[in-house]
Amino acid sequence: MSSSMVPKKPKLPSRAPERIRSTADLRDFQRLMMQAVTRPLAPGNRSQRRWPDGRAAANVVGTFSKPNAQLSGLERIEIYNRMYWFRTLDSLHEDLPGVRAVLGERRFMRLIETYMAAVPSRSPSLRDLPERLEKFIRAHPKLTAPHTALAADMAAFEWAQIQCYDGGAFPPMTPDDLAARSPARLKLALQPQIQLLALRHPVDDYAVALRQNGLRADASNAVEATIRKVKKSRPVRRPKAARTYLAVHRHEGRIYFKRLEAPAYRVLLALRAGEPLLRAVATAGPRVKPDRVQGWFANWMQLGWFYPRQKKLG
User: Fold this and answer.
1) Is residue 28 in some structural domain?
2) Domain range spanning residue 46?
3) pLDDT one-digit tens code per residue, 41-91
4) Kind plus residue range of the DSSP H or E element containing 263
């Protein structure tokens, strides 16, 4: 795993401070508590009985979690340890139905458990959990072989949908905004919610087939109910490799994905990078006829993909 993938972890205290006398003491206590709650579960969904340095976990946890009449200090923390992992894995299970279909339930669970242990979340939102999964899959191909490329593509595709769902949007550009403006200077800003993907597999068609086959139970958040649906439905064949360009976009609160031609994808990338319209269109290549480009832009304008790029003040 590259060092850039895993945030540098602060040095953790060996025990909780006896009293909180400073913000540094409070920070140490919070870090120790966080480690206890987020450590991966042991077999049987129990908290690990050994701390990473080999000490008995009960002794470490006992410095800040006291027993009561029914439970030891470690057993009390174990409740939260389980809650954290069950909710985390459940969230990834819900958000990644395509990756689940590619790998199957058992291999998928192994993947996300390994992923969360190696690349723990640093975000307060469950929404961000899949953010680094594509890179993790590509960096650890043994976890998903022989379907690593497809699993990584699907992880990128499903993360793009999450980003698109709550991505920003501005009032779209109108034909009046284009009037009397030179294409050499005109800059069209692509709506922030739009995600552009260059993939090795047609995951959009695969996702549609999975949904039609009843894989996703949109009305239910219950993992067990979803698993039962998977078992009852016919398996959908994994797609063969084929270069695929997609735009994931939102319209009236719903997520859509649109297949793009390679030259159109390059044009949109150039516009997103801030290139003027004329230079962006040039990236399509000399073989692309003007009427074809006009068709793309007519469709994109109709979908409201652009907004006027404002000049920076000052």
Assistant:
1) yes
2) 1-84
3) 888 889 999 988 889 989 888 888 888 999 999 999 999 999 999 999 999
4) helix 262-272
